[in-house]
Amino acid sequence: MPQLSFSEDSNHANQKDQDFSPPTYADSLTQPMSSPDYINQIDPALLSHLNRSQVQEIQKFISQTIAHEVNQKTAPINANYNQIENQASAREKSRSKLIDIRFVIDLLFSRFYVVLMVGKDVRKDQRRYPITRATKAGNMIAAFFLIVAMNLLISAVLLLGLYLLKSALSIDLLPGHFSDQLEILKK
Amino acid sequence: MARKILNPTTYAWGYLLGLLVAYTSVGWVLAAYFAPPLMWIWTVLLIAYIAWAGTGAIAGAMLWVVSVVWIAAYTTATPLLMNWKGSTWAISLVGVWIFAIGVVLMLAFAQSAIQALGWSRKGTFYRLLMITGTGLIIGRVLYLGSIPTPQSMALLYCT
Q1: Domain boundaries defined on chain A
Q2: Model pTM greater than 0.90?
Q3: B14: exposed, middle or buried (Cβ count in 10 Å: 0-12, 13-18, 19+)
Q4: ipTM above 0.95?
């Protein structure tokens, strides 16, 4: 229903009350209208010829039309909203990685961060930003050296752990200490 | 959990005390293994690096720890007075390895643990260096003080 505005001046308000008239078509463009408002747009002379059930039927028809129009207008918005919701949930799903290791290496003169992630690939499109050939080659070389370095470190840790475990269990695969074997190999 | 129960300042001071005890043990272990001077210098440099960089130094420090344990395994390092061999030697080295990782992590997380004391980064660095350095010296002195003299060794042999 259109609302009346009341000013603080009571005289002015009375004046407004007197000037009040049913909403017109021009009003309907700026303010939301309901089915009784639309009924009021019908010529009063014609309206007086209609009985109560006819007026109710017209009101029902107008309400249904309004509902249909509103649905049609908001359908794309709802579709967009659903799409955004789906994207957000997909992003949320893709965020849950199987492995997510992040740490910082401080080399005193500069700090570097290292991120290692393993998870399901959900990317459908290509990357939006272009990568030059030089960047690609640089990335490949850096990745190669990083993988080799990590591999060596992990191997060193594993080998040392296994060697000490073997020694702790008093298992002698070769006579003497492994350093003696290396010395023999050198000769 | 401990931080929730304890007053943050008390927790911070307790952490520093724990750090002193831990690095006293480091000094004791290094002295027991008769670590060469170069090893002592490298250890102090590593401590300074961790004290300054905090958790950012963990990766580098772990690399150092693995290298040291590898050197110890290659040279069959053992406390001079013990002369452990075989499985005892291997278990002791695993123990030293775990202990070294523990003290590195303890020092790396010290900055966040003692935040309640409100020290600046430089202040924290100097204090951590002082505490750990003192710990190393105390550990070494304690070990040298506990070395049995020829007379006591003879007495131990006789009994």
Answers
A1: 10-93, 133-187
A2: no
A3: middle
A4: no
